[in-house]
């Protein structure tokens, strides 16, 4: 039933959002000029037009009206917050770049505060209504044919995603012994159509293997005769040892080995804006005074430069110069040997700044220029990239992402020296999980966990 309501609720959200946008503008104008009449709004026609077009652009970039019933609540709110943030930024830029527009600073401030508040309130209300919508209209009854791995995976996926609005009745299979006791076996495959007619089942999801092509064709023909929608779920488990995602190019299915949220340009832009804002704050309010202070301390402690520059593997395996405060005496092994516990190369000051991760702070300059991100897989020395890529499967996949100052691997304890291959394997697996599960809120969580680890002193930092 979801597909019947998607368009309706999409346009309902579009209409409400634009109504709220223009209502908020009207309120903002009235606050500045309480005696203004509705016709006086004509004087503000340019800014009204520009902000409406800006909202169209922002909502399109972050696709807030796509999958309006199927997208989970957290991604929905994240996309809306990002859209509103971009709109506010554009509004300020318009005021600065076009001083001749009629809107005052007071009206602009009211709009930039009020519109996000009422829009997010409306979206939150919509999410609540969406959650309880099953009380207002009938569920979409479906059955699954086939109790193999694909059929059971589909069954559990639908159960764990109630926003899909599917009321899954049970599974049909000729061998009911394959089904767990918790799942209802409704009968044999050839009984599926008659059951669907009697119980008003709306859709049949067929997860039989390709070897059962005769049964699949029979079910399709019978379902068409009875005007029951038929969906075929290809069983790929026998052909591949990896779970794949499917994209459609026209009628051609394209299999992807993993989900990558940062392939989406809107997500990539959101992460980059976060990096620029975060690194700017650190550079202006911390590094502007801390770098000169620590430079003096490092110089007094040992001979050599203040900063240590090392070529490391970046995004797409492109090398870049990673910055750190120098924590070791000058040596010829820096590009080949990792620091280890009790390393004699580490200076007195270096021992403290490595233990507290202060030595990593100059990498915020790398973040600001785009070589690194605040959160991402840690960049490795070129030699380590070359060595580990030969012995660890999927090692190079981590280079699809911009390397980070901290990452999911680091906050889960996989940091420091990697004496054994298993230590690097754990780090790589954590990096791949991050690649497949990125959200802005995950980045914020990792930043908070990193700060917590700095204060409690990680035993692997030396």
- Note the beta-strand portion: 5-15%
Helix-strand string: HHHHEHEEHEHEEEHEEHHEHEHHH
- Alpha carbon gap, first and last residue: 58 Å
State Rg.
28 Å
Mean pLDDT: 84
Tell me, briefly, the overall form: flat
The residue ranges in which pLDDT falls below 50 over 5 or more consecutive positions are none
The major sheet is characterized as: 5 strands, parallel
Quaternary = single chain
User: Level of helix content?
Assistant: 40-55%
Q: Please give the count of helices.
A: 14
What structural category arises from helix and sheet content? alpha/beta
Number of strands: 11
Strand order, biggest sheet?
3-2-1-4-5
Question: Your description of this structure?
Answer:
By secondary structure, the chain is α/β, with parallel strands linked by helices. It is built from 14 helices and 11 strands. The model has no long low-confidence stretch (mean pLDDT about 85).
